[in-house]
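=== How it folds ===
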Amino acid sequence: MDLEKMQESALKASNMMKLFGHQHRLMILCELKVSEKSVGDLSNILGISQSLVSQHLARMRHEDVVTSRRDAQVVYYALKEGPASTLISTIYDIFCVD
């Protein structure tokens, strides 16, 4: 791998690690690994406010880590397939499985 590609890859990895570097975002991503959920579902499960969940989901949407779909007035979020889901699956297997 040439230096320019390595720097680009390192930047992408660093940005993803920053995204994973918050307890609430990790908890949200681990929940979304199991199944899609709404903001209200995540708020109830994790015990954090809906506005905080929404802020974290907005960041994850911006980073292209989650997808969303609307069903009437409810928006459901899911973990998007890709590098982030692969990493979350590993984190989930190590830290989240009972």
Q: What stands out?
A: The first strand starts at residue 37 and ends at 38. The chain has a mean pLDDT of 94.
